[in-house]
Amino acid sequence: MRATRCRNATIGGEPEPPTMAAVGRVLRTAVVALACAGAVARAEDKAASSASVQAKLSYCKDCHGASAQGYPGFFPIPRLAGQQIVYVENQLRAFIEHRRTNNVMFNVAHALTPGMVSALAANFKELNPAPVGGAPKQLVAQGRKIFEDGLPDANIAACAACHGPEATGSGDIPRLAGQLYPYVIKTLTNWGKERGQNPAKPDTSAIMSPVAHSLSKAQIEEVAAFVSYLR
Fold first, then answer.
1. What pLDDT is stored for residue 199 in this prediction?
2. C-alpha span between 94 and 203 (Å, rounded)
3. CATH class (in words) of the domain with range 48-228
4. Which residues of the chain are modeled with pLDDT < 70?
5. Whole-prediction pTM value?
6. What are phi and psi of 195, to 5 degrees?
């Protein structure tokens, strides 16, 4: 009995070193445990990230509407639903870099990580609520003509040439379809005061400057009316 109980002990009472097989079993157990812990941590991070995106989307929708359809108030807030991802990303950076001047949006954009910006843009792209409408319908026909054919006498190209025949945009060229009538009017009328405000960081919006400045108030309203009803 005594010999059996003590066969793994040395004369001084110290245990013998573990065998290589025992060490292997311990290491395998540790690796499995670490892998499981890592998987759980990644799952928790993903859940936290998803929750953060949803929370930020809810915050955005407080102003831009429950479906990001925009808000036609005294200060019209633009539709983001269906907007091009690259365009949204670029415009949020434009607020941070003061290429666009808006104190509210500067504070919002400045707090967003690049990953959050991309996640928000991707979520907005998937939304497709009905246009808010409300524009004078008698302006739509002439607005369509300007959008599709331009104004050759004024050397203004067709809007469709860049924004696409359905006004859905592409890449850093924005979607205009369904955009709020008063917002389009405000933006085109005040283009030079809202876009390209940081000379140190040239803005892609510069291409629109001669167009916006060449359109009359009536022509801006006509184009705005036409695109506001597109879906």
1. 81
2. 8
3. mainly alpha
4. 1-48
5. 0.78
6. -120, 155
Provide the Cα torsion 86, 88, 93, 94; round to 10°: 110
Q: Would you kindly state where each structural domain of the chain is located, as residue ranges?
A: 48-228
Total residues found in the chain within this entry: 231
Q: CB-side exposure of 54: number of CA atoms within 13 Å?
A: 6
The dihedral of CA 136, 139, 145, 147: what is its sign?
A: negative
Select from 224, 142, 145 the least CA-distant residue to 183: 224
3-state secondary structure 3-26: HHHCCCECCCCCECCCCHHHHHHH
Structure tokens at 23: 């060490």
Tens-place pLDDT, residues 61-99: 999 999 999 999 899 999 999 999 999 999 999 999 999
